[in-house]
Amino acid sequence: MALSACQYCGRQNEADAQFCNDCGKPLTKAAVARAAVAAGSRSGAVSRTSGPPAPGMGAAADPPAPCPLCGTIVTAHSEPEQRFSPDRLSDHSLTLVLLSEMATELQRFERRQNSTAIGRTEGDIRFPDDQFLSPLHAKLSWEEGRLEVRDLGSRNGTWVFLETPYRLTDGDLILIGAQVLRFRRLGYPGPHAPDADATKRMGSMVPSADIASLTQLRSDGSSRDVIQLSPGRDVHMGRERGDWIFPYDPSMSAQHATVRSEDADFVLVDDHSRNGVAIAARGAMVLHHGSRIMVGDKLLRVDLPGGEGGEGVPAA
């Protein structure tokens, strides 16, 4: 079935529809004209060609006019169908709790709308003092009974803290303490072609092939340190203990997280750290009761009535 998008709200409608099924705005020039006629009839406008009513006669009754939403002729005894506006109340409610660095509650935001936008200067919830927050940063919305969060193209990303082990995919950004790490898949190296003179090359002896890597990123996006990942080898990270140590990061626990090797995959695990491990949202990520997200430098907890919601960050 052919569809056309409403230029006002983006809703997909059938190609022959004259009015949007969501916002009610006209989709065609003919629909615009019909809506204008309906508006003129409701306001009591009189045609320039019509004369005054005949003596002894009351004002002429307005002719039947099309409904500006669906195009149906509205009679004196019919009423237009009740419709919700795009910003209608939701059957679900949620509370976003602003947390301090010590996880104490600072402020609560009660929401009953289908979606909640967060930003520095735009959105339903604003933090104008947060310089790490984009003007319009992230959006939470109810989709088919699940609460989802999406990043809206922000500069610093929207971070979702892990509740369960997370299977890494190429390009994932990881937040551990104050360290931003990028996971990349390298693939298995192929055989090297022999040199023309049959001389063997010298090189480091490694336990197995490196098929992935973690790269430490600076604030300008450039790379600093890199650690290679190979099958059968777990990598532990922390401030004091592990294979990759960050002694200069006070926000990192002594042993903070592990990247666990599972066959050819790698799974990120929070080692009961104090500040948690987060993944940058790519597309929609499902939240549930108790989920924590970070936008800019603001840490927010999701509270849902009765603990309803989705399953959180996908597990391994």
By DSSP (H or I, 4+ residues per run), the number of helices equals 1
- What is the H/E order? EEHEEEEEEEEEEEEEEEEEEEEEE
Q: Helix coverage percent of residues?
A: under 10%
Top-tier CATH class of the largest domain: Mainly Beta
Major pleated sheet: 10 strands, antiparallel
Strand percentage lies at: 35-45%
What can you tell me about this protein's structure?
- The chain has 316 residues and is mainly β.
- It folds into two domains: 34 residues, no CATH class; 190 residues, Tumour Suppressor Smad4 (Sandwich), CATH 2.60.200.
- The protein is 4% helix and 36% strand.
- The protein has one helix and 24 strands.
- The strands form five sheets. The chain has a ten-stranded antiparallel β-sheet with strand order 6-5-24-23-11-21-13-14-15-16, with no helix packed on it. A five-stranded mixed β-sheet has the order 8-7-9-10-22, with no helix packed on it.
- The two termini are 38 Å apart.
List the helices and strands and how they pair.
Blueprint: E1 3-5, E2 12-14, H1 29-42, E3 65-66, E4 73-74, E5 89-99, E6 105-113, E7 115-119, E8 125-126, E9 138-143, E10 146-151, E11 158-161, E12 166-167, E13 173-176, E14 179-185, E15 212-217, E16 223-229, E17 235-238, E18 244-245, E19 257-262, E20 265-270, E21 277-280, E22 285-287, E23 292-295, E24 298-303
Parallel strand pairs: 7-8, 17-18
Antiparallel strand pairs: 1-2, 3-4, 5-6, 5-24, 7-9, 9-10, 10-22, 11-21, 11-23, 12-20, 13-14, 13-21, 14-15, 15-16, 17-19, 19-20, 23-24
